[in-house]
Amino acid sequence: MFTGIVEELGEVTAVENLDDASRFRLRGPVVTEGAKHGDSIAVNGVCLTVVEHDGDEFTADVMAETLDRSSLGALVPGSKVNLERPTAVGARLGGHIVQGHVDSVGTVLDRKPSENWEIVKVSLPEELARYVVEKGSITVDGVSLTVVDAGPDYFTISLIPTTLALTTLGIKQPGDPVNLEVDVIAKYVERLLGARADAPAGAAAVAEEGGR
């Protein structure tokens, strides 16, 4: 599990395109400290497994499903990426619960800078709109953020100077893709309420009686 608090701005150093996958080599001295084979590292919000580790670089394999569902396929050597190690048990949850399982890809629509922050508008796929609410949480390229405004096919976020300086969101321009992960709690609640609504009346009554 991750929290969406990016630890460092890393860099893609090499991309090897395979038949149905890609192998990425990435540089990140903070996240590679103490890393070993099989560890997880989130790259732009995508949970990847460390295959090899050498100094301040590591390699990770990205399968076709991940390439299709995320923006990682657009990365090239020199691309900047947000990196985060999994949160340790007992550590502070600085952002929100982030699985590193990207739901879809959005597009930066607009940026409105001001003196101390910047408002960024991002497209929102229709199938995800019901999970995004004003002042709720969303993960954009691995960054835990608060939704400022939630529309039917977009949402806006407010970025502070630290986020602009230390993550890829500071350099994303209109037209650029970003990975989106909605709040997993909202999806579980929807599934549970749906199952309860679909249950036969007798089964629902038994469940309610058993809960007393």
Named at the architecture level, the CATH assignment of the largest domain is Beta Barrel
Task: Using the CA coordinates, give the radius of gyration.
Answer: 19 Å
CATH fold description of the largest domain:
Elongation Factor Tu (Ef-tu), domain 3
Looking at how many chains there are and whether they match, the oligomeric state comes to single chain
SSE order in H/E notation? EEEEEHEEEEEEHEHH
Helix tally? 4
Number of strand segments? 12
Average predicted confidence as pLDDT: 90
* CATH class placement of the largest domain: Mainly Beta
Between the first and last Cα atoms, what is the distance in angstroms?
A: 33 Å
**Strand proportion:** 35-45%
Residue windows where pLDDT falls under 50 for at least 5 positions? 204-209
| Order of strands, widest sheet | 1-2-5-4-3-6
Portion in helices? 10-25%
Total domains, how many?
2
Biggest sheet record? 6 strands, antiparallel, barrel
The helix/strand class is alpha+beta
Shape: globular
Explain what this protein looks like in three dimensions.
With 212 residues, the protein is an alpha+beta fold. It has two domains: 8-84, Beta Barrel (Elongation Factor Tu (Ef-tu), domain 3); 104-188, Beta Barrel (Elongation Factor Tu (Ef-tu), domain 3), CATH 2.40.30.20. Helices cover 17% and strands 39% of the residues. It has four helices and twelve strands. It has helices at residues 64-69, 161-166, 184-198, 201-210, and strands at residues 8-17, 21-27, 40-43, 46-54, 57-63, 80-84, 104-113, 118-123, 137-140, 143-150, 154-159, 177-182. A six-stranded antiparallel beta barrel has the order 1-2-5-4-3-6. A six-stranded antiparallel beta barrel has the order 7-8-11-10-9-12. Mean pLDDT is 90; it is low at 204-209.
